[in-house]
């Protein structure tokens, strides 16, 4: 998977002609690190930060019914954006489901995005549309994963569903010399989602989606041999040498509806669960299993835990 980085300067959002030559391609290309996760993952993860979900804003209500409330966001009031060509509308389907629609007209091109968030299912994605001066429409969908939030600023990872490429959006560290247009649109849509739900709810939603995928991928997981009973060393070990037995235990642990922790101490977005399977699975009598998996549900490691 290719990895790209965008660092956005959101303090200057006047949209002058400096953006007219900005490519939709994201900024600097960097290689993805190969992460080695050992069984030493025992540290407590940082407490989840909260963001006040009580938004003080003036909304222009467009329409509403028993199920959906639709309104226009005053982008100048909310984000300090003084540009008549940038508009944002929100559909609130419930307390846990919203659609943020943004449009930006720039010279001969029209850019738009639909950011969808559903806390119950863990869905968080944005569909971006560009209509160029030839009238051609290009549609791209990215899954969105927030990795850090400071106030209303954030770091996020976007995964292109079609190409599988990984992008990083960073509004906290502003060092880029140019701002990709789509980055601006996505960033402000995400900022509204952060305002609406707060970090705890969004990270919890990501974890639910990743856990669901991990359950599906458990059958392909192979535990490191150092965690099998016939291995040497001081590693925690399962009381079996069978990979298939470990896979069944890991899947059982994932299906126990465990509490999910967001792992903030690795470069790649990941989650950890510790689940009691109700039987001895470790060589020292452990009945719990710790599992670490990434945002796609790929299981990095699993081992007995006290």
From TrEMBL:
Keywords: Signal. It comes from the Bacteria. Residues 1-27 form the signal peptide. This is Uncharacterized protein. It comes from Oceanobacillus polygoni.
């Amino acid at each position: 998977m290719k990895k790209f980085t965008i660092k956005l300067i959101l303090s200057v959002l006047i949209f002058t002609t400096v953006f007219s030559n900005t490519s939709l391609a994201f900024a600097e290309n960097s290689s993805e690190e190969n992460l080695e996760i050992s069984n030493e993952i025992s540290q407590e993860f940082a407490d989840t930060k909260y963001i006040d979900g009580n938004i003080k804003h003036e909304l222009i209500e467009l329409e509403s019914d028993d199920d959906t409330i639709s309104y226009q966001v005053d982008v100048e009031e909310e984000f300090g954006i003084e540009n008549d060509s940038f508009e944002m509308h929100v559909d609130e389907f419930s307390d846990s489901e919203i659609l943020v629609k943004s449009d930006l007209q720039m010279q001969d091109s029209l850019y738009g995005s639909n950011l969808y968030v559903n806390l119950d299912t863990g869905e968080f994605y944005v569909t971006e549309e560009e209509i160029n001066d030839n009238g051609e429409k290009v549609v791209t969908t990215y899954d969105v994963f927030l990795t850090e939030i400071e106030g209303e600023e954030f770091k996020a990872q976007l995964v292109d569903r079609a190409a599988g490429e990984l992008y990083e959006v960073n509004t906290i560290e502003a060092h880029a010399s140019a701002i990709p247009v789509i980055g601006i649109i996505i960033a402000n849509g995400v900022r509204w989602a952060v305002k609406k739900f707060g970090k705890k709810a969004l990270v919890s939603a990501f974890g639910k989606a990743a856990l669901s995928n991990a359950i599906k991928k458990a059958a392909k997981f192979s535990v490191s041999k150092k965690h099998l009973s016939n291995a040497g060393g001081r590693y925690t070990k399962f009381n079996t040498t069978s990979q298939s037995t470990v896979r069944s235990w890991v899947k059982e642990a994932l299906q126990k509806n465990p509490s999910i922790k967001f792992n903030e101490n690795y470069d790649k977005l990941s989650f950890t669960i510790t689940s009691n399977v109700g039987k001895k699975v470790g060589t020292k009598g452990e009945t719990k299993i710790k599992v670490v998996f990434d945002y796609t549900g790929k299981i990095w490691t699993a081992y007995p835990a006290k």
